[in-house]
Amino acid sequence: MKRQPLRLAILEATRILEDAGVASPRTDAELLAAHVLGVERGRLPLIPLVDPPVIDALGQLVAQRAKRVPLQHLTGWAALGDITVGVGLGVFIPRPETELLLEWGLRLLKGREYPVVVDLCTGSGALALAVAHARRDAVVYAVDVDPNALAWARHNADARAAEGDTPIRLYSGDVGDSTIFAELDGLVDLVLCNPPYVPPGGELPPEVIDYDPAQAVFAPEAGLAVIRQAVATAARLLKPGGGMAIEHDDSHGAAAPALVTSRKVLTEVQDHRDLAGRPRFVTARRA
Ligand SMILES: C[S@@+](CC[C@H](N)C(=O)[O-])C[C@H]1O[C@@H](n2cnc3c(N)ncnc32)[C@H](O)[C@@H]1O
């Protein structure tokens, strides 16, 4: 078989993904092509022709993506901040929505030396590892209740440490446990948390329903149960002047700040929007 134009293969892949209802067909087609070729997406225009095995491999991945297997399960990674983490079955895929929460946290750490940071509901470890990468002097603790998520977090933490990042301290535990990280009471500079927050029964795309663990997505009390626990834990752990940021559902723009405000020690309560302009995370400082 002859070499073929990559541009046409990507166009065909885009059409297949569009027909399958994939939200960003062109982007996904390009990212899958880049994955097959082992190059950055931005370098695709520099590759005019590709060999038939490349077209075959791309076709197989596109067929799986058309069945709504998440893009990140096909490539094996997801990005947050300046790092990538391994993801797959059994762990939540970090989302772009969480970038602004991470940025807020890193801004809060500016000017603080050797800050203590806690990532509640760490999943793949993405938030904790992104902080540890950005701030080599930070002491970063992370916790999750799900052993499958923790296995991914351990794998990712080992990979980041091998790259030279300061190792994080990974724990198995429940944010609802009122003694969790008791040794850090009043000592923490920053608490970050992207908990499960989707109200049960909400309609979600197949990539979420079939591949993200339900425990990572849904929470009782109309999605607020784990947020409530995270707020209580943050209020206890933070040192005076320390800050917390908790992600929430776009329907929680009033309810999540209200939960934070109900804790008298938390001040400067502010809700923030995501890149799409929807209410997405609440922040506060320990008085
Ligand atoms: C939305 S995922 C977030 C993962 C990661 N922080 C991120 O942004 O990609 C929520 C995580 O919280 C964990 N989780 C759910 N309930 C929990 C609880 N009560 N205590 C600790 N972790 C919990 C789930 O196992 C899941 O890994």
TrEMBL record:
Residues 10-76 form the Release factor glutamine methyltransferase N-terminal domain. Its EC number is 2.1.1.297. The keyword Transferase applies. GO terms for biological process: methylation. Substrate binds at residues 194-197. This is Release factor glutamine methyltransferase. It comes from Amycolatopsis alkalitolerans. Methylates the class 1 translation termination release factors RF1/PrfA and RF2/PrfB on the glutamine residue of the universally conserved GGQ motif. One of its GO terms (molecular function) is nucleic acid binding. Belongs to the protein N5-glutamine methyltransferase family. PrmC subfamily. The keyword Nucleus does not apply. Pfam families: MTS, PrmC_N. S-adenosyl-L-methionine binds at residues 144, 194. The lineage of its organism: Bacteria, Bacillati, Actinomycetota, Actinomycetes, Pseudonocardiales. Residues 113-197 form the Methyltransferase small domain. Keywords: Methyltransferase, S-adenosyl-L-methionine, Transferase. It catalyses: L-glutaminyl-[peptide chain release factor] + S-adenosyl-L-methionine = N(5)-methyl-L-glutaminyl-[peptide chain release factor] + S-adenosyl-L-homocysteine + H(+).
